[in-house]
Specification:
Structural class: alpha/beta
Number of helices: 6
Oligomer: single chain
Order of helices and strands: HEEEEHEEEHHHHEE
Radius of gyration: 17 Å
CATH superfamily of the largest domain: Vaccinia Virus protein VP39
CATH architecture of the largest domain: 3-Layer(aba) Sandwich
Strand order of the largest sheet: 3-2-1-4-5-9-8
Largest sheet: 7 strands, mixed
Strand content: 25-35%
């Protein structure tokens, strides 16, 4: 969030759409913008807050063109499906925002960050399945129910579509691609315009 704030001059009047997010990440900002959070209905917590919450799909945003100063999305685009769905997601972000910030884990980072396992995402699907159905660091950190665990592992195996720098650039032509690093390695990539 610090890099996001350094990139854009956020004020309390800045209109931001967070696609696929939650209010929690915005607690780390020094300035609280005019925030709209869009996510699936099951992911929206309707507790007391001052943000606008919208239940919708990021591939078909229910907003007019360029209505937001910035569209923000953190580790969501890899979850929306195959490349065609990712392209619809990217097109919608570019359509409704004058600027955007779209972060995603780097496919070539040695640790798969959703399951917290090294190198598993480079292996063929049958070997991935044999490993992740038996053990992940994620399940020990989160302690999900068996149904949640199975759903998450199935999502990883059959729906998650990690991106590399070239693919992210092709989804957001003209964007600047920033790199978030850990120990010198490119952990995440961010497509930025504006």
């Amino acid at each position: 969030m610090r890099l996001f704030e350094e990139t854009f001059e956020i004020t309390p009047q800045t209109r931001i759409l967070d696609v696929g997010g939650s209010p929690l990440i915005w607690e780390f900002c020094r300035v609280r913008p005019r925030l709209t959070i869009l996510n699936f209905p099951s992911a929206l917590n309707r507790g007391p807050m001052r943000d606008d919450l919208v239940a919708a799909d990021g591939r078909l945003l229910p907003f007019k063109d360029k209505v937001f100063d910035i569209v923000f999305s953190n580790s969501v685009i890899e979850h929306v499906g195959p490349r065609g769905d990712q392209q619809h997601f990217a097109d919608e972000i570019r359509r409704v925002g004058r600027s955007y910030w779209v972060q995603t884990p780097n496919r070539f980072f040695p640790v798969e960050l959703h399951l917290m396992l090294p190198f598993v995402h480079f292996l063929p699907k049958p070997i991935q399945q044999a490993i992740v159905t038996r053990f992940t660091l994620w399940q020990h950190m989160v302690e999900p129910s068996e149904a949640e665990r199975q759903s998450y592992i199935n999502h990883f195996l059959y729906e998650l579509n990690l991106l590399d720098r070239g693919t992210l650039q092709s989804l957001f032509p003209g964007a600047t691609i920033l790199t978030e690093r850990i120990a010198g390695l490119a952990k995440s990539l961010v497509a930025v315009s504006g």
